[in-house]
Specification:
Chains: A mainly alpha (675), B mainly alpha (322), C mainly alpha (222), D mainly alpha (504)
Number of strands of chain D: 2
Largest sheet of chain B: none
Shape of chain D: globular
Radius of gyration of chain D: 22 Å
Distance between the termini of chain B: 30 Å
Radius of gyration of chain B: 19 Å
Strand order of the largest sheet of chain D: 1-2
Largest interface: A-B, 87 and 89 residues
Number of domains of chain B: 1
Helix content of chain D: over 70%
Oligomer: heterotetramer
Structural class of chain D: mainly alpha
Number of helices of chain B: 11
Number of helices of chain D: 19
Order of helices and strands of chain B: HHEHHHHHHHHH
């Protein structure tokens, strides 16, 4: 293990330093940086596998010259799982980047970009491995800092700068909460080492524990992007280069999930009241629903994907929250089920979100725009990208037989299992959460029907789209690999579930792998196979068979005649892309139905012909949805703070006598106080 | 599922059920149209007319739009496949379907969603504004039906202690069915019925007969289709209708369904089944004559009602069970 | 010197320090700058005398040096410098004050009380050193400080500052046989230099701002 | 280590700046001035190294009878003086020459500048090594006198104003401090009658336990308010932003990096004595309370600054406040964090002011919103500014993150001393973290605003390497390095010093 670890760290470090040293040939820098990153992530994958197979956790620790700080590393099942996820995506991203960054040759320093990229991977890895609070904080802050620098890669653009700053400040707010969390844990143990957190000398009083729970939820939730702390995410993730966006959206926000599990199940040993789980559940449900709703209204492809990260984090938290509720009622098998659902969705989301961001990156690479309204008809120009994007879309829309469907199905099952909970409130709340999840699922389906349909189908809407070219093979390979993983995780869950079960069992203590794999591993069942079961391979087979059947029927019913091609009927006119349904038009009914949430402001300007008011020369339609959280949550805080600061300015009025008076008063006060 | 079931028998059952679905579905559509015609004092076409239509469509040479991609041609097969697969998850005439293990109600709903997803894409692919309009309307209707659907079925699943459709039907059939806990079942039934109308694009949500731009939903999506592709889609939607009728019939009134595999039981089951779905078809036909199609943005109210009904069903279940 | 009981000596020293306090009040009440300078010189003279007395009674010779330095620096040199500055800037009197004279006097009275109040718990020791002189020293420091706040002209602020220094020196000698010589010398050096630098500054400020009214110095804010 | 070497080293320590000062009055031509300067500062650093090793060997060093007393505490300060002094001297080489070349100042005035600079150094060294509270006070007052002209060196209206305010406020503050020293003396006299030794730190430390607590309390208050003015603790801080804004960049670096530290040293010395007479709760509480106030107020001022020099000025108020909190809370961690923070802040702040100096020379403005796109205009400076800014915002891997976290941990685990808040109150920690976030936001909002973006067209692009860049690189590397791996001897130094603080 040590060898793998050092190999990984070494190659990341090499990728961190070499590109800066080696000659300023962008091509070489590109290969060096991303090559070593690929090596490092391979090492990470190996390390993760070792950790998952290894019976007991492996630890290493290097004391530092600084009090309180030890560079301690621990590789248990949980860390290994997240390490594996990160490294997997990291590997794909490294391959993708080789092709992707060529667009920047001569514009920005590829060496710097690549070096930061390696640093990003390294810090993320260390976050999952750290076994000491202080070390964890350093890795955590470094992760944020490096990702900030990657976000502002194109810092000439004002909105990118804004996004970066917003991200940096928000994540620091989160870190403040995390620091407070660790400080409270420190009180019980007198040390920052995670072992001390696990086994404090004197157990923390309940008040403190509750505070820790909430602080951790806010602190890590900020990074995970749960509503209402998500506002930075749709700005920051799209602003970064696409392979970075894939990493940020796919895995960086998962480190927060990791940390939450670490705190709740590891440090607290799963000792918590039911309402903790309920809070997590509610946060998850709200994030999922609002995330997808805001995503629907986005026409910037990368922002749309970023909002879907909010949604999927919500789905993950639904699983984990359900698990926590079950655990607090002593239903450990179901608790494991919930956590498995969450973790499975974690890795699935990582894979298909990365795949989709790669796709978006390829579109950006080919068309130089992120606005969906300027795409169209790209499936003809970029068949490979289109096919991969379609697989990603089907997966994130949780349609069978892909991986997204499996994990979402598991989340549904763990929510349905609520009928075993004694409390009536939970009995009712979890199915309602399930209903919200169902709504989320359909809306996600709609959103990606929009994303794929508007971008890849029908006629090109701009000359960019008309003249787009398929992307380099490295990018295609990366996308292909992830598409394969999507299908594999969908069609062969029986291979993944035991591993994830091992992870969940290591936290909760009871393994349910054998109960989940029914019918000699063909079907998946939530603990009791009578209640429900799912077999994606069977479904896949039946789908294929019926499709074949359809072909056969068509054939035997004489449907063999050749096809004829002609233009789409457009009421007698020539069909142009202006007649097509736009992304905005597609979601218009949804916007109208849920207008209470969107609070849209619509602006319609019409310019009529001189001759008659019955004919419009041009029409301009635009709608904005109210940024509710900025308006009612963030702006007031910012306004208050800066107002306070402004009012404080008078303290520094510029008058010498005033200053002397301060000193005088202070002195007299202290003298009197001293008596 | 039945662990000790010979594989041959299983395959035979699956095929039989597939055949039933494929063959009966056009007749149901024909029946509904016939009923409507009668109620509108027309003679109307024969019940078997849809078979002739399908035959004709398969023969015709398909015309494809030049703007479309492979998605457009693949969609009919995918829709057909997903619908039939969904149909194979619910018991038709025998309560113990071998494919039961393959998926539960969630899988059922999401299989239909798979078909819908590609249908929406196809609607957009044609490039005409009608296709887009249909797709976007289909999306909103679907997004409102599915939560209600899942809640309703869950309310029933609680009685049977399972969400696998076949297990539900089997157990409710062995129990006294809907009489077990009437109130939740009735509410769930109402909810599922509304959902079924919406899902299958019937009045008052959608009108399969219309081709009026402003009102059509499903028809708008398939507007650019012709020939065998249109045939497949028509057939698939017929199957979908039948599947939903089967769902209602067998989940809420599983009486007479074959709970064992003796030929007698099976044949009785089949007969009862045909009567039940025919009855439901008559009901739908009548409804379609009595009600006008709702405005699109009134549909939300209807489906909201469905959701609340389902929720109440759940509540009642827990209340009565304590 | 049989008549010279410690009691009498204490009385004399107290009298000396009391005179310093009185001159403080005089300066606080005085608007004319040159008069302020004279009063300051007078105060410094009292200070020197008190120091000499302490030196005499406690026969600690190095305080004589301090006393002599006081005479040279604070009675002769600094007043000269200040006078010249005043003439050069031809500002004769302080018209506007941050706190008017009666109020200032009242506040200073309060400060004296505070000073006594604070030093009250200190247990006196030795035959000569009394806490009264310490209290007075503290009072003078506080009054000087307050005067710096209440007056606006640079020169008066300087005088007030030097008043504080006098208070310190009183504390250092009357209360504690005087500090070690090296420290005394250092302090004196610093005071001298500080005064000179301040004098230079007043000139520069005059050039830059056409006034030594320190309320004009408020361009740097927040 | 023999006594002679130490005597030699100490005398070198004191003589080098003195001689250099006198020399720089007479020699002409900037080159020779710089040479003298570098030689003297080099000698200074060398001597410090020797002394530091001696201190390691024997815990504390006395020389010339007991006039000079150096222990771990003072050698930390000496270390800071040496390093930052060296860095400044290297930076001055480029900075001042350009000012002369551009005709901002007459070449003659360089002599004055260097004379004052060396006097400044001398005073600070003296204040650090002197064994007598009195001499220490004299030296610190001398720093005021030496620096006031350095601050007003450009002789603009604003710089004069700043200089005057600095002079008045600091002199007043210091005379209060002197009164405190007098009181200390008064209290010590009755214990050890001998007049000449009654101000000796070593002596006082021995008898401190017997001093009259009331007088010592008063004395400490006076000393705290007095030297606190020099440190720039709110509300005695008012001179600081003006002075830092108007002073030439290297001088500002010295003020922020070193002078404040020396003043802190003076307070800590007095505290070491006072703690035995009065309860450490009292002194500690005083430090921590004013530290917190300074931190909080400065954070909000940082939020609304539009002048980058003032920005850094307020940030040094903030960080000094933080260090004070560390010392006030005390304990092994608190004191360690405090000292570590002093060192880190000295480095980071001088780096920041060097960067500020470069920016000012290129952009001719101190307004933040007129500075854009440093990455293209001044790449090296941009990196320096980023490093210092991120370090001052206490982000890892920079050392200030470590020290800040140590201080916060100490605060949260032991809370403010009981005399000042009710036991177990977490309000201070929350306040600290909140204001930390505010300061972070303000600082990075401004700094990233300057670094990124595309520069105005009329600005000359590109930056070529000069001597002035050496200190920037050095300080930057040290800031990064210390955050992760502190050199062992420094750790021992800090631990020894915090042992001194906590021993009683």
């Amino acid at each position: 293990m040590a060898i793998l670890f050092f190999l990984m760290v070494a190659s990341y470090a090499a990728g961190l330093l070499l590109p800066l040293c080696c000659p300023a040939k962008p091509k070489i820098q590109n290969l060096v940086a991303h090559g070593s990153a690929a090596f490092g992530s391979l090492g990470g994958i190996g390390l993760g596998i070792v950790g998952l197979l290894g019976p007991e956790p492996l630890t290493m620790s290097v004391p530092s010259a600084l009090p309180l700080l030890t560079f301690a590393v621990r590789l248990d099942a949980l860390s290994s799982f997240f390490l594996l996820t990160i490294s997997l995506i990291g590997f794909a991203a490294s391959i993708y980047a080789v092709g992707y960054v060529t667009a920047w040759y001569g514009h920005i320093s590829i060496g710097l970009l690549g070096s930061l990229y390696n640093g990003f991977l390294l810090t993320m890895t260390l976050v999952t491995l750290a076994d000491d609070g202080f070390f964890f904080l350093i890795a955590w802050e470094l992760m944020s800092l490096v990702s900030y620098f990657l976000v502002v890669t194109e810092h000439e653009k004002a909105d990118v700068r804004y996004a970066g700053l917003f991200y940096l400040i928000m994540t620091h707010v989160g870190t403040a909460f995390i620091i407070l969390t660790f400080l409270l844990l420190f009180e019980g143990s007198g040390s920052f080492s995670f072992d001390a957190f696990r086994h404090p000398e004197q157990p923390l009083p309940d008040g403190i524990r509750t505070t820790v729970f909430l602080l951790a939820l806010v602190g890590f939730g900020t990074k995970a992007g749960v509503v209402p702390l998500h506002v930075w995410l749709p700005y920051a993730h799209p602003a970064a280069p696409s392979h970075i966006s894939a990493l940020m959206s796919g895995v960086m926000i998962k480190t927060a999930i990791y940390a939450l599990l670490r705190v709740y199940f590891d440090f607290f040993g799963g000792q918590f009241p039911w309402w903790w789980g309920f809070v997590v559940l509610v946060v998850g449900a709200v994030s999922a629903l609002l995330g997808v709703m805001y995503a629907l209204m986005e026409h910037d492809l990368k922002s749309l994907l970023a909002y879907h990260s909010v949604e999927n984090i919500g789905i993950i938290l639904l699983g984990i929250g359900a698990g926590m509720i079950f655990h607090s009622y002593g239903l450990d098998e179901l608790a494991v089920l919930g956590v498995i659902a969450g973790l499975y969705h974690t890795i699935n989301h990582a894979v298909f979100k990365a795949l989709l961001f790669f796709g978006a990156g390829s579109l950006l690479y080919a068309t130089h725009t992120r606005n969906m309204e300027e795409y169209g008809g790209l499936l003809r120009r970029m068949p490979w990208t289109g096919a991969c994007f379609l697989i990603g879309a089907v997966s994130i829309a949780a349609l069978p037989p892909t991986n997204g469907f499996v994990s979402e199905w598991l989340v549904f099952q763990s929510l349905f299992m609520s009928y075993q909970i004694p409390s009536l409130l939970m009995k009712l709340m979890l199915p309602i959460a399930a209903a919200m999840l169902a709504l989320t699922g359909v809306l996600a389906m709609t959103c990606f029907a929009k994303a794929f349909g508007i971008s890849f189908l029908a006629l090109p809407r701009t000359s960019h789209a008309k003249h787009a070219e398929e992307v380099p093979w490295t990018m295609r390979i990366a996308m292909g690999v992830l598409s394969a993983v999507c299908l594999a995780l969908g069609l062969a869950p029986m291979l993944a579930v035991p591993i994830i079960d091992h992870v969940a069992a290591s936290m909760i203590g009871s393994s349910i792998a054998d109960k989940m794999l029914a019918l000699d591993r063909w079907a998946l069942a939530p603990v009791n196979v009578e209640f429900s079961s799912l077999s994606t391979p069977a479904l896949g087979l039946v789908l294929a068979a019926t499709a074949a059947l359809a072909l056969g029927l068509v054939a035997c019913c004489g449907g063999t005649s050749s096809r004829r091609y002609s233009k789409t009927w457009a009421c007698g006119l020539n069909l142009t892309s202006r007649m097509e349904y736009s992304a905005a038009g597609f979601v218009q009914p949804i916007k109208r139905v849920f207008s209470s949430i969107y609070q849209p402001t619509v602006k319609l300007e019409t310019e009529f012909l001189e001759e008659s008011r019955y004919f419009a020369k041009r029409r301009r339609f635009e709608f904005h949805i109210a940024p509710v959280f900025q308006t009612y949550f963030y702006d007031p805080i910012i306004a208050f703070m800066s107002g306070l600061a402004d009012r404080m300015r008078i303290v520094q009025g510029g008058s010498l006598h005033l200053y002397l008076a301060y000193m005088f008063v202070t002195l007299v006060m202290l003298l009197l106080a001293a008596l | 599922m039945i662990p000790d079931q010979p594989i041959a028998q299983a395959v035979a059952l699956i095929l039989a059920q597939a055949v039933v679905l494929l063959c009966v579905s056009p007749a149901i559509v024909g029946l509904i149209n016939k009923v409507k015609a009668r109620l509108q004092c027309r003679r109307g076409a024969g019940i078997l007319q849809p078979y002739a239509d399908l035959q004709k469509l398969f023969r015709k040479q398909p015309v494809l739009s030049t703007t479309t991609t492979w998605i457009f041609t693949a969609t009919p097969y995918i829709v057909f496949a997903s619908t039939v697969t969904a149909g194979l998850l619910i018991p038709v005439f025998a309560s113990q379907m071998p494919l039961n293990f393959a998926g539960n109600i969630i899988a059922f709903v999401y299989l239909l969603a798979l078909g819908r997803f590609f249908l929406i894409l196809a609607g957009l692919d044609s490039g005409s504004s009608f296709g887009g309009m249909g797709s976007s309307r289909e999306a909103i209707v679907a997004s409102l039906t599915e939560p209600a659907m899942i809640m309703a079925i869950f309310a029933i699943a609680l009685t049977a202690g399972s969400t696998n459709l076949s297990t539900i039907v089997h157990r409710t059939a062995l129990l006294e069915g809907i009489a077990t806990d009437p109130s939740p079942h009735l509410m769930a039934l109402a909810a599922v019925f509304i959902v079924a109308l919406a899902e299958t694009g019937r009045v008052p949500v959608d009108n399969p007969a219309t081709h009026l731009e402003l009102t059509m939903i499903h028809e708008a999506m398939v507007l650019e289709y012709s020939g065998r592709y249109l045939g497949l889609l028509e057939w698939a939607s017929a199957i979908k209708l039948l599947v939903f009728l089967t769902l209602i019939a067998n989940v809420f009134a599983p009486w007479g369904i074959a709970t064992s595999f003796t030929p007698i039981a099976l044949s009785i089951g089949l007969a009862v089944y045909l009567i039940k779905v025919a009855g439901l078809a008559l009901l739908i036909g009548t409804i379609e004559c009595m009600f006008a199609k709702l405005r699109l943005f009134r549909v939300t109210d209807l489906l909201g009602v469905a959701f609340i009904l389902a929720l109440l069903g759940l509540l009642f279940f827990y209340m009565l069970r304590g | 010197m049989s008549w010279l009981t410690p009691h009498i000596a204490t009385q004399i020293v107290d009298f000396g320090s009391a005179m310093l306090l009185v001159t403080c009040f005089a300066i606080v009440a005085q608007r004319r700058l040159s008069a302020c300078v004279d009063l300051f010189a007078l105060q410094s003279l009292f200070l020197a005398m008190t120091a000499a007395l302490v030196a005499f009674f406690t026969d600690t010779p190095h305080i004589y040096i301090a006393a002599a330095l006081t005479v040279v620096v604070k009675v002769v040199v600094i007043p000269r410098v200040l006078k010249s500055v005043i003439e050069r800037l031809n500002v004769t009197r302080e018209l506007v004050m941050n706190v008017n004279v009666p109020a200032s006097l009242l506040i200073c009275g309060a400060l004296v009380m505070i000073a006594f109040f604070i030093t009250e718990p200190i247990i006196p020791f030795g035959h000569l050193l009394t806490r009264d002189s310490l209290a007075i020293a503290l009072a003078i420091v506080l009054i000087g400080f307050f005067t710096m706040i209440s007056r606006q002209k640079a020169v008066t602020q300087l005088i007030a500052f030097l008043m504080m220094e006098n208070g310190l020196f009183l504390g250092a000698t009357a209360a504690t046989y005087g500090m070690p010589l090296i420290v005394e010398l250092g302090v004196f050096f610093d005071v001298l230099v500080a005064a000179l630098i301040a004098g230079i500054y007043t000139n520069r400020l005059q050039d830059a701002f056409d006034s030594v009214d320190t309320t004009r110095l408020n361009e740097l804010k927040a | 280590m023999t006594g002679h070497t130490i005597v030699l080293a100490v005398s070198l320590l004191l003589l080098a700046p003195l001689v250099a000062g006198c020399v720089s009055l007479v020699v002409s031509g900037s080159r020779w001035l710089h040479v003298t300067n570098l030689i003297s500062i080099g000698a200074l650093v060398g001597a410090e190294m020797v002394i530091a090793r001696a201190v390691f060997a024997q815990g504390s060093v006395t020389a010339f009878g007991d006039i000079v007393y150096i222990d771990a505490l003072s050698s930390i300060i000496l270390l800071i003086i040496g390093t930052v002094g060296l860095a400044c001297s290297l930076y001055i080489r480029t900075y001042m020459d350009e000012q002369v070349a551009r005709g901002v100042i007459a070449p003659k005035r360089l002599n004055l500048f260097f004379f004052l600079f060396h006097m400044f150094l001398l005073a600070m060294v003296l204040a650090t090594v002197a064994n007598s509270l009195g001499v220490q006070w004299v030296a610190i007052e001398a720093t005021t006198l030496a620096t006031t002209f350095l601050i007003a060196f450009w002789r603009r209206r604003e710089s004069l104003e700043a200089g005057w305010k600095y002079l008045i406020l600091c002199s007043v503050g210091l005379s209060l401090a002197l009164f405190g020293v007098v009181l200390m003396y008064y209290s010590s006299l009755r214990v050890l009658g001998d007049v000449s030794a009654a101000l000796n730190i070593t002596q006082l430390q021995q008898v401190a336990a017997q001093l009259d607590p009331h007088i010592v309390k008063l004395a400490f208050i006076f000393v705290f308010v007095g030297y606190g003015t020099k440190v720039g603790l709110v509300p005695m801080h008012s001179w600081l932003p003006d002075a830092y804004t108007e002073a030439p960049a290297p001088v500002a670096a010295m003020l922020a990096g070193v002078l404040e530290t020396v003043a802190v040293y003076a307070i800590l010395r007095c505290r070491g004595i006072a703690d035995q007479a009065v309860s450490p709760e009292f002194t500690g509480g005083l430090l921590a309370l004013f530290g917190l106030i300074s931190f909080a107020l400065a954070a909000f001022f940082i939020l609304v600054q539009h002048n980058y020099k003032r920005l850094f000025a307020y940030s040094s108020i903030e960080h000094m406040g933080l260090a004070m909190v560390g010392f006030g809370v005390g304990g092994a961690i608190g004191n360690f964090g405090g000292f570590f923070h002093l060192v880190n802040h000295a480095f980071a702040k001088s780096l920041a002011f060097f960067a500020a100096g470069n920016i000012h020379r290129r952009f001719k403005t101190v307004e933040i919103d007129q500075v854009r796109g440093l990455t293209t205009v001044l790449p090296w400076t941009a990196v320096a500014l980023l490093i210092s800014g991120l370090a001052l915002a206490a982000l890892p891997p920079f050392a200030l993150f470590t020290s800040e976290l140590q201080i916060v941990t100490a605060l949260s685990s032991s809370g403010l001393p009981r005399e000042w808040t009710q036991p177990g109150s977490r309000f201070p920690v929350v306040l600290l973290l909140l204001c930390g976030v505010v300061a972070f936001a303000g600082l990075l909002y401004r700094i990233t605003g300057m670094v990124w973006g595309s520069a105005p067209k009329d600005i000359v692009h590109g930056e070529h390497w000069s001597v002035g860049h050496i200190p920037i690189v050095l300080l930057g590397t040290m800031l990064v390095g210390f955050g992760l791996a502190l050199p062992d001897f420094m750790r021992q130094l800090f631990e020894a010093a915090s042992a001194l603080m906590t021993s009683r």
